[in-house]
Design brief:
The chain is built from one helix and twelve strands; from the N terminus they run αββββββββββββ. With 193 residues, it is mainly β. Strands 1, 2, 4, 5, 7, 10 and 12 form a seven-stranded antiparallel beta sheet that branches.
Length: 193
């Protein structure tokens, strides 16, 4: 009987730890006075690849727009972003966060995105987010971003996601020279599976 109780307890602990929430921010990134490509596998205990994302320390980057909030503490915290002046109208301006598969399995277990604190970097715009699970389309959502950071929650149906693709929209306020959209990530909460 004790062995059964011990086994059930062990399985419950294993199940709880497998679905623990992970809080990702960019405070551990090196100080960067210019936009620097986001390294893959950040944070170090996750297998996330960051395609077309940059990180920067807003308080020391002269090109930061009003949507790059500066932490008032002495330590300047870094953020991740896509778009803005680093995006050309001739190319697609999008970024991707993807969970790489582990080992020989043809599929990844995935994660459940919970929420992100986001803003636009320079001017109000939209961002469209598409979710995939091992290459299969899960869903899409479009959020309106302002230069004020705001917490956005992902749809609860987005479970076992392996990739999120972010596309900030171009602003068409000036039809001759529209400004590219942008998205700044302050933090990302997800549940690992």
């Amino acid at each position: 009987m004790k062995k059964i109780v011990l086994l059930v307890s062990f399985l419950m602990v294993l199940a709880l730890s497998a679905s623990a929430q992970t809080y990702i921010n960019f405070h551990e990134m090196p100080v960067a006075s210019t936009p620097t490509p986001m390294p893959d596998y950040y944070p170090s205990d996750m297998n996330l690849t960051w395609t077309n994302f940059y990180y920067v320390t807003p308080g020391i980057w002269s090109g930061a727009g009003p949507g790059f909030w500066v932490d008032p503490t002495p330590q300047h915290n870094s953020v991740a972003f896509i778009g803005g002046p680093l995006c050309s109208l001739a190319t697609s301006c999008n970024g991707s966060i993807k969970l790489e598969q582990i080992g020989m399995s043809p599929t990844s277990k995935g994660f459940t995105p919970i929420s992100m604190i986001l803003s636009s970097g320079w001017a109000n715009n939209r961002v469209t987010i598409m979710a995939y699970s091992n290459g299969k389309f899960v869903g899409t959502v479009t959020w309106k971003l302002t230069t004020e950071p705001y917490t956005f929650s992902f749809p609860t149906s987005w479970t076992y996601v392996t990739q999120l693709v972010f596309t900030p929209s171009f602003l068409t306020t000036n039809t001759v020279a529209p400004k590219p959209g942008s998205m700044v990530i302050y933090s990302f909460i997800l549940m690992q599976h």
